[in-house]
Amino acid sequence: MHMFRVILVVTIPPFTSTCSHCRGLGRIIKEHCTSCRGSGVVEGIKDVKVTIPEGVGSGDTIRVPEAGNTGGRGSRSGNLFINLKVADDPVFAREGADVYVDANISFTQAILGGKVEVPTLSGKTQVNIPKGVQPGQLVVLRGKGLSKHGFLVDHGDQYVRFCINFPNAINKRQHAILEEFAKEEINNENDTSNEGNWWQQLLERVTDPRFMLKFSMLMLILLFFNKTMI
Fold this sequence. Notes:
Elements: E1 61-64, E2 80-83, E3 93-95, E4 98-106, H1 107-112, E5 114-120, E6 123-129, E7 138-141, E8 158-165, H2 172-206, H3 209-229
């Protein structure tokens, strides 16, 4: 018995498949690009001009449309997302939309008051020094801070922190004046202390139960005589 191998050709009704010659591109590329090797995409670096909005802070993100990677073969590029990190400033310290700046003043300015020039984001300005200002005391300049997006308020504030510079050395006349000032200060403290003690003694005497008893008896006697006279 003889065995035969039969090969049949079967025709399938309308059917589509990827062309084995052009691989579905519709054209045959005879010479491939040596840069992209036929992918249509190459790696590289390009500069993008970006506008930084006012008032941004570290951690904010800026989106640049169609500045990202391309999908190749004529497709649109993706978006570029830039994560911001704000560098520290040598003059201003920042807290949100508010800024802080130090103002160095002399100890005589701290006692007598006056004016001092301080920098702001829009230029220099004069700030009043309150009489008797303390080290680290703050003065606020409304609306002199950074831009911010909020209801009715579009800018933060600037805070001026006073730093008092004390002299390292003084002459004899200055020393004598300070000694006289110190003596008057001690006398004023003693007067205030004595006045406080007087009020304290009066308060203790009025709240003494024996005083309250005597005062009550006196009021009863006055009421009795008042009724008798009527």
